[in-house]
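User: Run a structure prediction on this.
Assistant: Running it now.
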Amino acid sequence: MQSKSLYFAGLDIGGSTIKAVLVDAQAAQVGSLVEVRSLVKDGYEATFGQLEQALEQLAAGACIQRGAIAGVGLDVPAPSSDGVIWGRANLGDDWVGVNIRESLSARLGVPVFMTNDGNAAAVGEYALRTAYNSSLMLVAPGTGLAGGLVLPGGRCYDGVNGLALEAGHVSVPFREDDGSLPLCSCGLTGCAEAWVSLVALRRRLGLELAKPQWAAHPLNQTAASIEEKAFRLRDFAQQGDELAVSVFRQQGFIFGYLIADLVRVFDPGLVVIGGGLAETSFRDLYMSWIEEGFAERAWPVYRFSPIEPDKATTRFEWAIGGDAAAAIGMAFAARELFQ
């Protein structure tokens, strides 16, 4: 067994900030979450400098030398395979085609594990559930709709090309009022992300506000952008506003319908719902809409055990890691792989 003096860092690269967490050899977090400015648009070399700054702050906060950090877990907001970024996403141009994992490992002098941000958050949710050791699937609506699958023991399944659990791009059989399929950001139509995401919420709200029945709604009495109106929709839902509730109810139902198909493929047992809705006061109501959609689509065996009828075979929980989940997941992964 390795010395207890070894530590492992998790680094979560975002578009505006890099979040960092340190754990010891027993997987206990040491110190607090560190955040530094992200320079992803300025290129990977500039970002490497920020990652080193984050590691220095982690070491200082734990009163250790940076050399005591024996391994690093890194997540990136882009598709990658075996450490190589092959899609620009929200990164600068020079990231594409570079083996980021090897380059960062050489610069830091320690081994590096790398995956995407959705996978990292899923591992983080697993790591935070210390009494849980089965599989876990995370689905998290945000600007898009991310997902991640963690296998028993804590290993993430990210696929040969790093594209496993692209949950947002599974097709769902729902149509707009005029019978058309909504266009997804990926260029296809009818994807779940076109219904369950912040972008989808903006589109849906715009369509609803154009209807005569909502002409007197407060959101129609302002010149604010649709982005600002969608941002305010949560507040309206928390107050029981009919328009807001109807929009979120539809989204939650379709979300549950999607999850039923994912569960039929992966049978994870535990489904964790991430994203900002986990922090709203109407989250229990939103979860009930998810469960309604799930019940509509899921086979009975994925709801309750045929042997123990009162035992749920698929459980739903809200994410508990917040903004730190991905960094925690990467620290956990580094500790599992490199100690």
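The first helix runs from residue 44 to 62.
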